[in-house]
From TrEMBL:
<dbReference type="GO" id="GO:0046654">
    <property type="term" value="P:tetrahydrofolate biosynthetic process"/>
</dbReference>
<dbReference type="GO" id="GO:0016301">
    <property type="term" value="F:kinase activity"/>
</dbReference>
<feature type="domain" description="7,8-dihydro-6-hydroxymethylpterin-pyrophosphokinase">
    <location>
        <begin position="6"/>
        <end position="140"/>
    </location>
</feature>
<dbReference type="GO" id="GO:0046656">
    <property type="term" value="P:folic acid biosynthetic process"/>
</dbReference>
<keyword id="KW-0547">Nucleotide-binding</keyword>
<comment type="function">
    <text>Catalyzes the transfer of pyrophosphate from adenosine triphosphate (ATP) to 6-hydroxymethyl-7,8-dihydropterin, an enzymatic step in folate biosynthesis pathway.</text>
</comment>
<keyword id="KW-0289">Folate biosynthesis</keyword>
<keyword id="KW-0418">Kinase</keyword>
<protein>
    <recommendedName>
        <fullName>2-amino-4-hydroxy-6-hydroxymethyldihydropteridine pyrophosphokinase</fullName>
        <ecNumber>2.7.6.3</ecNumber>
    </recommendedName>
</protein>
<comment type="similarity">
    <text>Belongs to the HPPK family.</text>
</comment>
<dbReference type="GO" id="GO:0003848">
    <property type="term" value="F:2-amino-4-hydroxy-6-hydroxymethyldihydropteridine diphosphokinase activity"/>
</dbReference>
<keyword id="KW-0067">ATP-binding</keyword>
<keyword id="KW-0808">Transferase</keyword>
<dbReference type="Pfam" id="PF01288">
    <property type="entry name" value="HPPK"/>
</dbReference>
<dbReference type="GO" id="GO:0005524">
    <property type="term" value="F:ATP binding"/>
</dbReference>
<dbReference type="InterPro" id="IPR035907">
    <property type="entry name" value="Hppk_sf"/>
</dbReference>
<comment type="pathway">
    <text>Cofactor biosynthesis; tetrahydrofolate biosynthesis; 2-amino-4-hydroxy-6-hydroxymethyl-7,8-dihydropteridine diphosphate from 7,8-dihydroneopterin triphosphate: step 4/4.</text>
</comment>
């Protein structure tokens, strides 16, 4: 059994309902959801969009291997309306790296594993630079050390926000 930490989010449509559905699907297909953060609103990161994002962190126990979790996450995203092919077309047309989407589920952590493949990077490379990740993550795992950086999630958030102890 492994502990997986996921970030769910989106900014198109009824995002909060979609996040509730994603949580139920994660619980049914990936593993028992042990903890979840509140939903947090944030401005789009890395691109311009009219709608803000809503994000939530889920912590689950799983019997799936990391690449199996990724495959299941992609299935859940498709079921909930994400179309990665359409997003690629929009990114090409706008020249933006990111675009609005109804759902996005990222694997932030998988136990203390460090994985770097073309398909999957764990821990998620953007954790330390993204307040919209660290805020819900700190709600549920503030004292959890980052497996590469060695700092706790709380310390990473404090560093990002320029806070001192």
């Amino acid at each position: 059994m492994a502990r997986v930490v996921l970030l769910t989010g989106g900014n198109v449509g009824d995002v909060k309902e979609r996040l509730r559905t994603a949580q139920r699907l994660v619980n049914a297909r990936i593993g028992a959801v042990l903890r979840c953060s509140h939903c947090y609103g944030s401005a789009p990161w890395g691109f311009e969009a009219e709608q803000p994002f809503v994000n939530q962190v889920l912590v689950a126990d799983t019997d799936l291997a990391p690449h199996e979790v990724l495959a299941e996450v992609h299935r859940i995203e498709r079921e909930l309306g994400r179309n990665r092919a359409a997003e690629a077309v929009e990114r090409a047309a706008t020249g933006q790296r990111y675009v609005s989407r109804p759902i996005d589920i990222d694997i932030l952590l998988y136990d203390d594993e460090v994985i770097s493949t073309p398909e999957l990077t764990i821990p998620h490379p953007g954790i330390a630079e993204r307040e919209f990740v660290l805020t819900p993550l700190c709600e549920v795992l503030r004292q959890r050390p980052h497996p590469v950086l060695g700092l706790t999630m709380g310390e990473l958030r404090d560093n990002l926000l320029g806070k001192t102890k």
